[in-house]
Amino acid sequence: MQVEHTSVTLTCSQYTSHLSSEELESYQEKINKLGISDPYTSPQILYSPIAAASVDTVPDLEYPDKVNYLIFNPSPYTGKVLKAYKSTDAYKYFQSGWVQDLFVWQLEGHNLYVIKAKVRHSQRLNDPLLHPWVAINKDGTVISAHCNCMAGLGEACSHIAATLFAVSAANSTLKNQSCTSLKCTWSQPSNESKQAAPFERGKDITFTYTSRKRKESQSKAAVSNPIKNYRLDFYKALHESEASEKVPCKSAILALIPEYSDEYIPKAVKFKIPPSLAELYETEFTTYAPTTGRERQSCYAVHEHQ
């Protein structure tokens, strides 16, 4: 990222007053390269809390961006890569809640974000909080940083690293917000709906959902069911295995299959017996009168027998 170098008159503050003349000159050069006023003396009205920010007002800082800055970024003094491996442990500072009052200042003209925070000391917890700040590009590239701790001029202390971890966590939280936490928006039209629909008469338009129409067309299509064929083959193999056994052990599941259920009917039900007299009784024969001689003779024989 190319930043326009603008000369800015630096006003000493309580966070830069301890710097020597050479260190103050280096800090002045850093501010001029960014083309901004000193973050320590900039009005608080320019900053907004990052907890209430949106995705557009927070840099897209991710893990590779932090590694590139803390490990591979050249030192402002020696020009060699920082290799601040110890600073990568600063995630514990952020996880322990040592990073407080995270604020962001969005410079739209420079496509730059200045973020400042308050971080506790790693050893002296009762001392006043430290005030690191970082300058980050919109795409997550860390441009510069500073802290008022003893190692702050190196631009890669643990407090700066903890601030970067806090910014990255805030960015991740904003990206993963649920739809209920975002502003109401219209749903984006699909590619299918963007295509020009042909004009049709009202009586010819089908007012059904596309998904429903798709299901109807799928249900009408004749599709073979391989699972059914596998199941029938299994029943057949099971029945054949029973026949090959010396002592057949019938499978209960075959009793429910029509092709094999006849073998499971009890013998008492299958045995055919003559119908009972109650089944042969017919009321229409109670008033029957014999007409022929043979029928009369049969009736007389029945009465004599009684």
TrEMBL record:
Keywords: Metal-binding, Zinc, Zinc-finger. Transmembrane segments: none annotated. Residues 132-168 form the SWIM-type domain. GO terms for molecular function: zinc ion binding. Coiled coil: none annotated. InterPro entries: Znf_SWIM (IPR007527). This is SWIM-type domain-containing protein.
